From TrEMBL:
It comes from Paraburkholderia bannensis. GO terms for molecular function: anaerobic carbon-monoxide dehydrogenase activity; FAD binding. Keywords: FAD, Flavoprotein, Oxidoreductase. Its EC number is 1.2.7.4. The keyword Oxidoreductase applies. It is an enzyme of class 1 (oxidoreductase). This is Carbon-monoxide dehydrogenase medium subunit. InterPro entries: CO_DH_flav_C, CO_DH_flav_C_dom_sf, Diverse_Substr_Oxidored, FAD-bd_PCMH, FAD-bd_PCMH-like_sf, FAD-bd_PCMH_sub1, FAD-bd_PCMH_sub2, Mopterin_DH_FAD-bd. It holds the Pfam family FAD_binding_5. Transmembrane segments: none annotated.
Length: 266
């Protein structure tokens, strides 16, 4: 590690002002990815601006149509929230299986999305539910937010304030996880939205989270596990690494989608 300044922000605008004035500064949320990168000298910020104590970033609001979660809410609090579990159980279930207990206690929704790890879980929920990322200056649709590996639509000093998840008719998440890190070797979030549209978001299988349109079309016609299993996914743009081949990930996607549909149907 090396020397850097640390500031604890008390409000969103103050945090944004610090990053606007110092291009080498970084926001600190849970720090589960950033601190590890700093130890490896892959990131060397001049200042860490801690946003975890900003009140507006710590709230959870649930009504019949939208679940709004502050960016600094940790995974464990999403998993344990009774209103989320009752209104959007697919999201609570996803949060309950992120990393291990320590990661869930510190990692945050906003930090996960801003980092946009290719194998992270939350991006699948955001894309699958057609959520809206709310920042200090604008609202970003899920389809416009994720641009590539560790790349999002955020400006360097832009701060995620909250995420608004539309409440679907049903949803669920299934992943085949790395036994050590618990990241998704492949993860699939399935949602049948209030208007009947179906979205299927896949994480862990490519350079960034993506929608599986062939599965969406099949499930729109028949929202059944059998319809999901009947879809063949091409491995061409999928990852091959020491954990799994592209062919294996292509096989997993419809299998996990079928499991998610089964869970969603109860």
């Amino acid at each position: 590690m090396y020397s850097f300044d640390y500031q604890r922000a008390s409000d969103a605008q103050g945090a944004v002002n610090t990053l606007a004035a110092d291009t080498e500064a970084k926001y600190l949320a849970g720090g589960q990815s950033l601190l590890a990168a700093m130890k490896l000298r892959l990131a060397q910020p001049s200042t860490l601006v801690d946003v975890t104590r900003i009140p507006e970033l710590k709230t959870i609001q649930v009504d019949g149509k939208v679940v709004k979660i502050g960016a600094a809410v940790c995974h464990a609090d999403v998993a344990a929230n009774a209103q989320i579990a009752a209104t959007l159980p697919g999201l609570a279930q996803l949060a309950a299986h992120i990393g291990d207990r320590q990661v869930r206690a510190l990692g945050t929704l906003g930090g996960s999305l801003a980092n946009d790890d290719p194998a992270a879980d939350y991006p699948a929920a955001v894309l699958g539910l057609n959520a809206t990322v709310v920042t200090d200056r604008r609202r970003i649709a899920a389809d416009d937010f994720f641009l590539g590996m560790y790349e999002t639509a955020l400006e360097p000093d832009e701060l995620i304030v909250a995420v608004e998840f539309p409440v679907p008719q049903r949803s669920a998440y299934e992943k085949f996880r790395n036994p050590a890190s618990h990241f998704a070797l492949t993860g699939v979030f399935v949602a049948q939205l209030a208007d009947g549209a179906v979205r299927v978001a896949v994480t862990g299988a490519a350079s960034s989270v993506f929608r599986a349109t062939a599965l969406e079309d099949a499930l729109k016609a028949s929202f059944t596990p059998a319809a999901a299993r009947a879809v063949a996914i091409a491995p061409d743009d999928l990852n091959t690494d020491l954990h799994a081949s592209a062919d294996y990930r292509a096989h997993l996607i419809p299998v996990l989608t079928a499991r998610a549909v089964t869970r969603a149907l109860g």
